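Schema walk-through. Below, the input block comes first and the output block second. Nothing else is stored per chain. Lengths vary across the set, and this one has 383 residues.
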Amino acid sequence: MSSGPTEVSSGVVREVQVFSQNVNRNYAHLDMLLDNIKDTFDIVFIQEPPWRTIRQMVLTTSPEGDDVMGAPKHPTWLYMVRTPTDGRPPHVMAYVHRRLARLRPSMWQDIIDHQDIFVLSLFTSKGVVNFLNVYSDNAHTAINLLSREVNVLPAFIYMGGDFNCHSEVWDPSRTSHPLVVQCLLEFASDVRLKWARPSNPGLTHIPHNPDLAGSVIDLVFTGPLSAQSNLPRLDLDHCGPSDHVPISTLVPISESEIRVSRMVILRESPEESGFLIDLATGLRALNVEDLSSSDQIEVTTVVVAEVFSSAWNAHAKEVVIMACSKSWWNDECTQALARYQASKDPVHWKLFCKVSHQAKWCFFDAHIEEIATENKRPWDLMA
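--- output ---
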């Protein structure tokens, strides 16, 4: 096992060790665990963390002070948790080793904000890589939410946690494949992950009650870069008093392909013309003679939305947004770059530079012209 993130001579972090466990809200276990694994792991994902009063905050208005709630802290680890809302404690949290601080670890609540889901991002030399920590209850709340929100989520290189989800896919003792399992597998595929069978497969949930059967509900999903040698491993040595077996995973990050796609219609493109024609045709066909009641207005607004949606879906195309994406980039730039990458010919490199230079000039000239003659907001040039 690695004693820290693997680095090349340039200081680039190539891979990180991830530890994941449901600690059953056991404060003492988590407190001890953070110290025991500080030299061997880089990221710790916790499900069902303890959440209790850790100290009193002195107030001038109250001699008793206010309770400060939280989980254990440790000087080696950056403490990352979603602030509880409506009195509901978080079901997931993360600890990131301070040696990864230069990768600017960030918790992204604007991507998805829920007590059962934690999105962690690291900023590498190749771009942003995203990790997902999940706790899904018996009602499959987190799995259902992820399935609904899949279209607004980025690609991930790791997803792990307690999924409370039984299936013959990962548990040979089961003979069922419920719909929620299919939802989970489809979501994983959509964010470019697949379930990774541990190198030492076994039960991950071993109830303290001997009358209850063990099961496999703690899972890890990894991306295409994770080789067979990097399969997750059930970490029995650090199980502690929890009835969930931890899972450790070595995750490559430096060569990750960052793929974020968006559906767009480019300005002044044939697709834009088609979109506007279909939109105008659909709107002209609407019957808006009688809008005297709220029900009729509501029906009309739904039909208008369907017209927009149908026109958009017919003409929008997928583009891939990468760390090096530029707003001035066009098809000629793509073709010129591909030609150079295939040949490595210096002549083709000069041609690519010329094409990209021309693309920049055309784009920014048009942008300046638009601002000068149409919206007349020169401060937009600073954007």
